[in-house]
């Protein structure tokens, strides 16, 4: 067995070797059940449903579904939808989709209690949106979710996650 890289080697929550889950193309995939915030559970646990790996939605559908998931307290699942849209988008729109997906990851970190990760991803997502050549959907005002993400990052830095109610850990992607 190869030597483990510090912090990356096999452990109780990590898998290595030939038993690792892979998709049909051979890419690593984790088939373990997940909790409502996307954290892997034990193989025999009952988890929350996740998005299918081959989800295909239009831009408007992706935004609407991601918003419903964020509003329901499931930002990890919103990230999966936004990531699928990002991967299938044209070159001019990829940065916008990537930024929206990163905002959803930032919200996931916030819901999991990871203040540093939340602030970093909310800001990174807002910056990706600002750098984008095109909005993900024609006519969408991407400035609003970017500004809201930065505002939430500022609030988390200033006040800390312990005092922010979970209902405030969301960003409006669409109005």
Describe this structure in words.
By secondary structure, this protein is mostly helical. The chain has a domain of 110 residues: Hyaluronidase domain-like (Orthogonal Bundle). 46% of the residues lie in helices and 0% in strands. Helix 1 packs antiparallel against helix 2 and helix 2 packs antiparallel against helix 3. It is globular.
Radius of gyration, whole Å? 17 Å
Structural class of the helix and strand makeup?
mainly alpha
What does the main sheet amount to? none
CATH topology of the domain at 59-168: Hyaluronidase domain-like
- Count of distinct strands: 0
**Helical segment tally?**
5
Query: From N to C, what is the helix and strand string?
Result: HHHHH
The CATH superfamily of the domain at 59-168 appears as: TTHA0068-like
User: Approximately how much beta-strand content do the residues carry?
Assistant: under 5%
Report, as a whole number of angstroms, the end-to-end distance. Answer: 52 Å
- What is the average of the pLDDT values? 82
Keywords:
Hyaluronidase domain-like; 175 residues; mainly alpha
Short description:
The protein is mainly alpha-helical and 175 residues long. 46% of the residues lie in helices and 0% in strands.
Topology, element by element:
Layout: H1 59-71, H2 75-88, H3 94-112, H4 115-131, H5 143-159
């Amino acid at each position: 067995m190869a030597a483990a890289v510090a912090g990356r080697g096999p452990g109780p929550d990590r898998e290595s070797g030939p038993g690792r889950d892979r998709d049909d193309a051979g890419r690593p995939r984790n088939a373990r059940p997940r909790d409502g915030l996307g954290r892997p559970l034990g193989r025999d646990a009952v988890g929350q449903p996740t998005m299918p790996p081959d989800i295909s939605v239009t831009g408007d559908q992706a935004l609407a579904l991601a918003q419903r998931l964020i509003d329901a307290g499931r930002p990890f699942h919103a990230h999966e939808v936004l990531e699928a849209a990002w991967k299938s988008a044209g070159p001019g729109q990829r940065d916008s989709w990537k930024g929206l997906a990163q905002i959803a990851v930032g919200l996931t970190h916030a819901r999991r209690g990871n203040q540093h990760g939340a602030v970093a991803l909310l800001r990174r997502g807002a910056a990706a949106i600002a750098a984008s050549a095109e909005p993900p959907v024609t006519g969408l005002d991407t400035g609003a979710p970017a500004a809201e993400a930065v505002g939430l990052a500022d609030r988390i830095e200033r006040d800390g996650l312990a005092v922010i109610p979970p209902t405030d850990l969301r960003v409006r992607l669409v109005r």
